[in-house]
Amino acid sequence: MSNQKDFNWDDFGTKGFGEGYSKDKRAEMEALYAGTLNEITEKEVIKGTVVGINDKDVIINIGFKSDGLVPRTEFRDLPDLKIGDEVELFIEEQENSLGQLVLSRKKARMVRAWSDIEAALEHDNVIEGLVKRRTKGGLIVDIYGVEAFLPGSQIDVKPIRDFDIYVGKKMEVKVVKINHTNDNVVVSHKVLIEKDLEKQKAEILNNLEKGQVLEGVIKNMTNFGVFIDLGGVDGLLHITDISWGRINHPEEVLNLDDKVQIVVLDFDDDKKRISLGMKQLTAHPWDALSAELEIGSKVQGKIVNVADYGAFLELAPGVEGLIHVSEMSWSQHLRNPADFVKVGDEIQAVVLTLDKDERKMSLGIKQLTEDPWTKGDMAAKYAVGTKHKGVVRNLTNFGLFLELEEGIDGLVHVSDLSWTKKIKHPSEFVKVGDELDVAVLELDVDNRRLALGHKQLEENPWDTFESVFPVGSDHKCTVVSKNDKGAVLELPYGLEGFATSKNLEKADGSSVEVGEALDFKVTEFSKDDKRIVLSHTATFREEAKPAAAPKKAKKKEDAPSSAAPAEKSTLGDLDALAELKEKMEGGKK
């Protein structure tokens, strides 16, 4: 009760809060109170202690005059948060309109993240990030809560074709660039690999030697070969060193990212160019050939290449033989090898030459069939006088070559094409590819020669002409052409005759002109040379009749018959001529 008497209720009721203190006492109290609070500055990161947790907020004491509230959602990454834990916070406002301290853990984390990222760039630190998703040209990696861009070229030292395999996985990276304007961070995983590879590369190059067998990964493929990563060192595996067999592109037998065993074939002094081989790890297929393989053996294989001069037959990968075009057919007329075989054909052949030391062989396919010149029925089939049909294969100045069957050719001389026409070149009579009927004139099996004739299919009309155009007989002729020496005349039955210039004079003294049809007298007839000489002048000048013609005829055994007058021709001769003329006119048509 004494205590109640001592308390002055008037002083308490009449004075405001803080009143009644002397200035010194008040200053002492303020200093004491201020010593229990922290000096805080807005927009900075500080540490605070969790003093309370409810469903919505986390109450944080930062040593300020009031506690701050932070939404519980900002602590989702700390499911085990409890009272007494220390956390970093960002001071947004010391006091808002409600007098509350405004804090943010999210912003504190962001500020801290950028600080750590800048430190990582400055000190070349390694950061562990989480690959969140794939984006155009690379990956998005979460580092300290900041989304950073990892370009595709910076993922690995080898080209990466599938970015999706990294999504959701952790990856160590280094910060290579910060753009504060766009809040953009670029990171790299490749630089970490390259540092490890530098040591590995130095070790490989120091120990590199020819014949060394290494393991590598196929990094890139081209039409000429494959680039292989040997562990920071690239080497070229040329297409010709991949397989003993023939391949058109490495992708036929290899795949990107494959691990392969290879052997070092060669390298330059700086070891910048390294040549690798794969086929050299296996024995050469020539060494595995059967000892029974010899000249004359029949072999089976596949056509792997066709050239202008022949085709290559693959008996086994790396073992090929050349089939020259001349060994594809018994025909003497070389054709394109593509007419006989094509790439991919499975065929048989005969070994013609074999050199296992040089690893070369020549093959033939025509040898699978009998040589037509050695057949038993050759002599009888193409006996002299037999008739055949063939194809014109080649033309020359002196005649043409006719193929009667594959491998059997014969020559038709230009003089054996026609009895009546004077043919200077075979092209006037036939062209290559035409069919022609012939008769065998001569056969020489040993020397593979066959002489053929076309005109011999008909009787020689000059035997009949000898009695139709005897010396002294007159005939109606047309002047075909003229020159300094004389004129060419068209005679009956399609024959040609010749008259010298002095024998072209008419009765009125003028000269016979081209196109005129006049009577001409035969002054010379030669069956062997197929020549008839005539004169128009002799038809009206008795003295122009040559006296020498009978003398020339007397030298021949058949002179009396050749001098017989035309009117004494037999009926049989006239019938033969009529038939001949009909044939010749039919041929012209």
What tags apply to this protein structure?
17% helix; 10 helices; five-stranded mixed barrel; 30 strands; alpha+beta
Give the % helix.
10-25%
Strand order of the largest sheet: 1-2-3-5-4
Overall geometry: elongated
**How confident overall, as mean pLDDT?**
78
CA-CA gap between termini:
166 Å
Give a description of the structure.
By secondary structure, the chain is of the alpha+beta class. The protein has helices at 2-6, 9-14, 23-34, 105-123, 190-207, 378-381, 462-468, 548-554, 559-562, 571-588, and strands spanning 45-53, 57-61, 68-71, 86-93, 101-104, 126-135, 138-143, 146-151, 170-179, 184-188, 213-221, 225-229, 234-238, 259-267, 274-277, 298-306, 310-316, 319-324, 346-355, 360-364, 387-395, 399-405, 408-413, 435-444, 449-453, 474-482, 486-490, 496-500, 517-526, 531-535. The strands form 6 sheets. A 5-stranded mixed β-barrel has the order 1-2-3-5-4. Strands 8-7-6-9-10 form a 5-stranded antiparallel β-sheet. It is elongated, with a radius of gyration of 57 Å.
